[in-house]
């Protein structure tokens, strides 16, 4: 077992006291996924992690980071005792950052943070040992946990920084100390907390406060409030690299071609043309990939290899993953499911609708004999006082007529349902479980079905219900356009 943390290292980082000698090969906060040899961190969230220390040790944890000895744990168990657990985890994260020579990137933005982080994981892993955040570990505990899991011999590290309120990103950025940062875009997400797009832009731009001297800021040239981003980055001394469709962009997206299973992009890198492909349809994926390529080059990666390797990326689960649900293996009837149920705001929903509009259903199946485009949309949350108007505005989305039926979930989406022409209105339900109960009635064989909504709307339950109707097969797009 290679030691990630030893007793001496962890005590020096946290100022804590160990009950006995131990060494850990990983760091975990969850007994459901803990691995033998992990250091279990007893964070207090909905539940107090101290209640699970005995279970973690029974599953093979090397030690537990605690602020007290739980009643059901022997006093001689391997424990690292500290005054408070979260500050100790932060200290581990800072120590891990200090001991590595890795080139470190940090990504934020209103939309596309996790997808872009995963793109960077793919294109950097071909050029060195790469460490990246799991899932959306982008908050006050996710960022230090990601750092604490980073091996000293890492070549590249990619962190995702998120926020719900003002003042959250800058402290995380200072902890990460990135060599390069990227802002994917600015969109009306978290308006409830930040009040305006300008407020969102200023909060996202505070990521530059953690930049290493001479570091690069990869900024969206086409985003709302791009001037605010540029001004704040310039004031910090960052080297600015712009990406997008604007004529002034250093990495300029000239054109994209959406295929049924991929996006082919033509771009300019400082005036020199190049082509790249991502294995999922969507202009936003091409735009984020372009920014990721700029960020990779800023970290010292080979730009040609990176442009080739970006073609190996596919969206994570719940973020636009497309799969085929087989309904009858004998008759070979099916429908296609686009699972984009992890999150939603007006910008990301518009992109998801464009992908659905461009998708091709399968004809010759089911009672209708003609495949349709179906949307199942859940509430978009945290949009502030204009939330009803923002939901109603979806009815004016260009090309929406191509979507045959739109099912809606939640009190906010009722505003869209009422604004739709009667021929497009599907079901409306107050909650996702109510709609999930009618999963069989939401589509016909041959249809392509998009499910999109904020995580709190729980439309992922509808995705689960649809998957249970058959055998899901993720589509393999390798070698296609």
TrEMBL record:
Pfam families recorded: Mur_ligase, Mur_ligase_C, Mur_ligase_M
EC number: 6.3.2.10
A single GO BP: cell division
GO MF terms, alphabetically ordered: ATP binding; UDP-N-acetylmuramoyl-tripeptide-D-alanyl-D-alanine ligase activity
Domain Mur ligase C-terminal: 331-454
Cross-referenced NCBIfam families: murF (TIGR01143)
Official protein name in the record: UDP-N-acetylmuramoyl-tripeptide--D-alanyl-D-alanine ligase
Source organism (scientific name): Neotabrizicola shimadae
Lineage, opening ranks: Bacteria, Pseudomonadati, Pseudomonadota, Alphaproteobacteria, Rhodobacterales
Gene from which the chain derives: murF
